[in-house]
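Students often ask why inverse folding is considered easier than folding. One informal answer: many sequences map to the same fold, so there is more than one right answer. In these notes we will look at a single instance of the problem. The structure comes first.
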């Protein structure tokens, strides 16, 4: 459902033009010509966005903005101002306005800003809904591949079968392992994490199986290994593809017999744990190359799971960015920064070769270094600022809460904008490529038929 818009403008001609453009774009609108009328509407109805003129006949638009944010703190405000009152617009931004537009401006400009602002509000609402639906996971996302993954995790978690999690570095494999443990009957037991790639091969056996006192130089006391420490819970072996084949044989025996022997020891010790493993390498290649034993692979991969890379998760980047902003602000004890709609668009276009870990790193850097409370494109790293859609390609992430007509209008607007950009703003050339007349293109732009 579309957010209701409050338009506060005392100029009848300007108000009529904006009211008509907003309605034609499918937005429900209420108009007020004075501060008093606006306050009356705010006390009676809920609005998602307010378009406010700074200068009004019966009062100050900035005072009205303060009243708006007190009465409806969830409402976003766009301030409209004449060229002579830009200072007032800057003050409005400090008070809490999302953006300002110097008059005069074409209707397509305000409709584009409104589209971006509403997209930001959609992201915040989707994140709230996602947390309400899935409070059992820190794995944020609602793209089709993520939904399928999380559904499988919830199905598999109560079982005791061994799970192999595959995916590129930085995709969130450890979060999946944590979720498997938390939703399992073993949740009351320990979750023991082992990064197999970080342990030298010569020490791996002692780390996994433990050792007796005097088993080797420096073993001055008995020590339980990771398998023993995981008794009653879950053992998570990350980078399992780095385990040497000789050690795979010993692990295979432990998994089959549920018994281990410490290094330097003779007694067999019973162990009971659920095994979850992860790797960013192609397991089939490891088996073909002899780096992983086939019998070991079959034992650890009873349930294989694939965590998708961030580039294959349309719509998840804004949710993750907002999630990291909120989490980092709590950790640092600071107010959360806000992503401008333009910055959010650039984050969505970037391919994220480092996946979710790279996105988290970028957001943390921005949270610390951004002056003020809003992240704009100029604050983003150069490689992200340079990101543009490939020529001849248009990408559009569309909320499924839109109607078909709204979704088609949103795509058409983006498509026409991309063609115009590729033609350097030449409307004649753009119209020829679009297969419409120049007059038709002008009408679409000026009459706002292609808005969201």
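Output (designed amino acids):
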């Amino acid at each position: 459902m579309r957010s209701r818009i409050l338009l506060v403008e005392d100029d009848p001609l300007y108000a009529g033009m904006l009211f008509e453009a907003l309605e034609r774009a499918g937005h429900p609108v209420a108009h007020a010509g004075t501060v008093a009328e606006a306050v009356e509407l705010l006390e009676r109805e809920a609005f998602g966005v307010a378009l406010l003129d700074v200068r009004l006949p019966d009062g100050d638009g900035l005072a009205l903005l303060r009243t708006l944010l007190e009465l409806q703190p969830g409402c976003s405000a766009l301030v409209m101002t004449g060229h002579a009152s830009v200072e007032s617009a800057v003050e409005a931004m400090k008070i809490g306005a999302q953006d300002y537009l110097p008059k005069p401006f074409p209707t397509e400009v305000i409709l584009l800003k409104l589209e971006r602002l509403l997209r930001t509000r959609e992201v915040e609402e989707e994140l709230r809904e996602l947390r309400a639906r899935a409070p059992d996971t820190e794995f944020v996302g609602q793209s089709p591949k993520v939904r399928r993954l999380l559904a499988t995790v919830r199905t598999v978690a109560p079982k005791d079968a061994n799970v192999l999690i595959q995916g590129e570095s930085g995709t969130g494999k450890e979060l999946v392992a944590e979720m498997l443990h938390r939703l399992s009957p073993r949740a009351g037991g320990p979750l023991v994490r082992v990064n197999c790639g970080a342990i030298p091969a010569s020490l791996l056996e002692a780390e996994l199986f433990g050792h007796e006192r005097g088993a080797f130089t420096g073993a001055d006391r008995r020590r339980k290994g990771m398998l023993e420490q995981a008794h009653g819970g879950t053992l998570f072996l990350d980078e399992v593809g780095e385990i040497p084949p000789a050690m795979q044989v010993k692990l295979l025996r432990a998994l089959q017999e549920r018994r281990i022997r410490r290094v330097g020891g003779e007694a067999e010790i019973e162990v009971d744990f659920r095994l979850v493993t992860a790797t960013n390498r192609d397991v089939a290649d490891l088996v073909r190359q002899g780096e992983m034993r086939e019998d070991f692979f079959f034992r650890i991969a009873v349930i294989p799971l694939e965590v998708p890379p961030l580039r294959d998760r349309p719509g998840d980047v804004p949710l993750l960015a907002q999630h990291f902003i909120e989490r980092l602000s709590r950790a640092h004890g600071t107010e959360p920064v806000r992503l401008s709609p333009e910055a959010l668009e650039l984050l969505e276009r970037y391919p994220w070769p480092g996946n979710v870990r790279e996105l988290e790193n970028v957001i943390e850097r921005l949270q610390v270094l951004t002056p003020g409370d809003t992240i704009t494109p100029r604050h983003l790293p150069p490689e992200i600022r340079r990101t543009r859609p490939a020529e001849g390609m248009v990408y559009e992430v569309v909320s499924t809460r839109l109607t078909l007509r709204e979704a088609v209008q949103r795509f058409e607007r983006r498509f026409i904008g991309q063609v115009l950009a590729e033609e350097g703003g030449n409307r004649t050339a753009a119209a020829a490529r679009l297969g419409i007349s120049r007059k038709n293109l002008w009408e679409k732009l000026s009459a706002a038929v292609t808005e969201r």
